[in-house]
Every structure is written in C-alpha cells, then in structure tokens.
Amino acid sequence: MPVPKLRIENLSKNKIVIEGKRRRKIPVIRDLSLEIKSGEFVIILGPSGAGKSTLLRLINRLEEPGSGSIYLDGTNIKELCTDRVRRRIGLVFQVPVILTASVREELSLPLKLHNLKVESDNHPEELLRMVSLDTGLADRDPTQFSLGQKQRLALARSLALKPEVLLLDEPTSALDPASSLAIENLVLKLNRRTGLTILFVTHNVEQAKRLGKDCAIIIDGGIIETGKPEEIFERTTNRAILDYLGRS
Amino acid sequence: MLTGYYQVLVALILIAVAVVLSLWQRARLEKDLLVATVRAFVQLVAIGYALEFIFDLNHPLLILLTIVIMMTVGAHTAAGRVKEVPSAFGIALLSISLGTFLTIGLMLLTRIISTEPKYVIPLAGMTIGNCMNAATLGLERIHAEIVGKKEKIEAILALGASSRQASLESCRVSVRGAMTPIVNIMKVIGLVQLPGAMTGMILAGASPVDAVRIQIVVVYMLASAVGIASLSATRLSLRSYFTKFHQLQEAQ
C-alpha cells in the first residue's frame, strides 16, 4: 500500500482565549485523524470556528499541536526543518496579503527566501499563466489589483516553490461569485494537470457540491463524516451536520 | 555655598510662575509640579554628594557599580514604558549595557577620555540616558510592527522564511525610528540647540572651542551607542515574538 502524502494522526490543539484579565484554554482541534493520498483533492468543509484554518496552520507548521502527529510522505513533520516543510506544503490565506511593490518581485520572493534559482516552470510569466493572469501584469504594482487578482497572485506565489501539497484556506470567501468560480476552476485544473495534492477549506456547502471532490466534514474540531459532498448530505442522520445544513 | 542655594531659591520663583500658570489654565499640574520640584532638588543634591564621594575615592569598582546602578534604573524606566513587550527589562538592560560598555570602553581604550570618575561617570550617564530612550523607542516600535503586521509576517513565514527574514523590514523600521532623535540632534547641533555637555563646560569657564571639541566626541559616541542599543533591543526582542520553529508566539 502506498504511503499517503499526508497522514494526520490523533491531532489535538487548544487555543488561549483572553477574557478581560483571565486566560482560558479552549479545544479547537480534537483527536483529528485524516489521510490524504498523493494527487488527491480534498475539501475540508465546516462552519466558522470549527477548526478548519487551525488544521491548515498546523499542517503548514505555523502552529504546534498540543498532541498528535502530522506525517508528510511518512515522515513526521517535526523531524523536518520548518522551512523545508513550508516549501513542500504551500498555504494560501483567506485574505490575500501582498508583500512587495511589483508582481515580478512578489513571484521571485519565495525563491529569494530559499536561495533558489528561477527555472522554466517557475519564472514569473509562467506562474502568471498558471493562474490565468495576463503576463503583461508582471511589472505592475499588485496593491492596485482587485481582490480576485490578488488571490490569484498569492496562489502563483505559493506555486513558485513547486509545492507537493497546497493548502487553500477559504480562498474565495472574500471574492465575488464570478471570481470564486474562476478560482475553483483554476485549482481543479491545477490538481488535474499537475497532480498537486490540494486541501481546500470552505464553509460554503454549495461550493463543496460544485467542487464535487472527496470531502471531510469538520465540526467542533473533529471530522464527523467523509465522502462525496452530495452523498453525505443525502444519507447523513448526524445531528451536528443536519444543524450545519440548516435541516434540523 | 550660601550663594549657590540663594540662586536655587530665586530659581524657585520660576516654578511659582509655572504653578500660577497651571492654576490659571486649570491644567491641574500644580501637585505634579511641586512633587517634581522637590524630587529634582532632593535627587540632584543627593547625586551631587554621592558623586563628590565617588570622585574623591576614585576606585574602579565603585565607578563600575555606579554605572551598573544607572543602567539598571535606565532599564527599569524603559521597561515601564513598554510593558506589553515580554522580558522588556532584560532586553533593555542588555541593550543599554552593550551600547554603553562598547562605546565608553572604546573611548577608554583609545585614551580619548581619562579613567577618572569625573569624566567616566557623566559620559556614562549621558550614554545610558540616550540608550534608554533608544531601547524604549525601538521596543515600542517593534511591538507595534509585529502586532500590526501579523498577517504580512505570517504570509512570509508560510513561504518558508525564517523569523529573521520575516521580521527584517519591521526591525529596520524600528531601528530607524529609535535612531531618528539622535540623527535629528546631530543635524541641528549648534544651530538650534547648544548641547548639555558643551553648555555645562562653557558655564564652568572652559573655552567654547575646547567645549566644542569634547561635544563632537560626545555626540559621535552617543550616535554609536544609540545605534548599538536600538539594534540590539529590536533584535533581542524577536525571541519574545517568535518560537524556535519560526512561528509567531500564539499570544501575539
């Protein structure tokens, strides 16, 4: 049996909540386990505050879990250098953050950080083509872009490092319907053409149905069901999922 | 002696003017002004006698102890201004010490200043005061930068950058902010203000040219000390904001 690309084992994470002068720990991820095969596209679906973003932050190692482990190609990510983990596992945030004053700089920044050379498949123009942005934008100031363009650029920036896994944290929640659809089609195409393993986080049930890929429903920090979105929504009798779908 | 305190009594009239102005404008500063007046008098008279004792004894350990006490008070004051920065006292003490010892040490080694306490202590005091301000400004700024630019810093970290790479711009901005006062002073020195050391020497009867020569040395020394203190304060504070795995500390 092939080693899964990502294996998440009994992951738990508490967060500190500050209430006035008191600090309180609340669980955000509870004993979560999940396996993702190489080249798979998995949707992580759940309501706000379910722990979806925290799960991605733990996989990218922006945070440390309280307990449990994450394996990349069978190796615990704690045994790898942090920069190596983040190079192999890209993360695109909900709201795109622009880091430089030109598109070209933005796309060469990840390579500079790792002292890597530009190659034929990650030079700025090629990356722009991959995310369906006009190559004529290469010398423009990205702070002037629309939110949809900025999100595509953030996606291209992550792709510059040629990651093996791409984590997308609600990448369309700040976008208009047309831009959302465009991003959905773009990441589906990327997965199909390049075999990139993708974890797509969303709270949007309709979006999960549209993407139509394998889905893990996360509620209160734990995975409740897995399968194709339509099938789960049809067969489920789980009270938490029915509440989330507004069918209780 | 009597003449000296007679001058102080006359100067008190000026404080009375400030108190009257505060009462007239209802600024409610009278109490603070009176407390500050008494504190300034007591502190300065006490330090006057203490310095006379230290100067007369002229013992290196006593000079060092005096400087260490001054640095501790400076670090305590700086840390009080930046309570939100974790381990602020330790960071301020270390950066003030580095700024002070490196510059004063170089001045002593190159024999630009004598080892006599009457030279070392006032110069150390001036250096510590400036390093204290630099550490405070640097720490205030780096805290604002890291808290205010959390999303940007995490976006860089997520690309595999080290915490040093991710905070480089914030550190630059903080050091620039902490060094601005001394750079501004150097730009207008002699044009807008006559600095303390020079004024003191002229009042004490030294020739203006001699006073200027010392002042140039002092201001260059202060610029160097402030640079060292602000850079070390911002760099050292990064350990409080990032984990060893290049993650932002969760409380930030």
A few lines on this structure:
By secondary structure, chain A is an alpha/beta fold. Chain A has helices at 52-59, 82-88, 103-113, 124-130, 147-159, 177-194, 205-211, 229-235, 239-245; strands spanning 6-19, 22-36, 41-45, 67-72, 75-76, 89-92, 165-169, 197-202, 214-219, 222-227. A six-stranded mixed beta sheet of chain A has the order 6-7-8-3-9-10, sandwiched between helices.
Describe this structure in words.
- The complex is a heterodimer of chains A (248) and B (252).
- Helix content of chain A is 34%, strand content 28%.
- Chain A contains 9 helices and 10 strands.
- In chain A, the strands form 2 sheets. Chain A has a 6-stranded mixed beta sheet, with helices on both faces. A 4-stranded antiparallel beta sheet of chain A has the order 2-1-4-5.
- Chain A starts with 5 loop residues before the first strand and ends with a helix.
- The model of chain B has no long low-confidence stretch (mean pLDDT 90).
- Chain B has 2 domains: 1-57; 58-240, no CATH class.
- In chain B, helix 3 (60-81) packs antiparallel against helix 4, helix 3 runs parallel beside helix 5 (117-148) and helix 8 runs antiparallel to helix 10.
- Chain B is globular.
- Chain B contains 10 helices and no strands.
- By secondary structure, chain B is mostly helical.
- At the A-B interface, helix 2, helix 3 and helix 5 of A face helix 6 of B.
What are the main properties of this structure?
heterodimer; A: 248 residues; alpha/beta; six-stranded mixed sheet; four-stranded antiparallel sheet; 9 helices; 10 strands; globular; B: mainly alpha; 2 domains; 10 helices; 0% strand
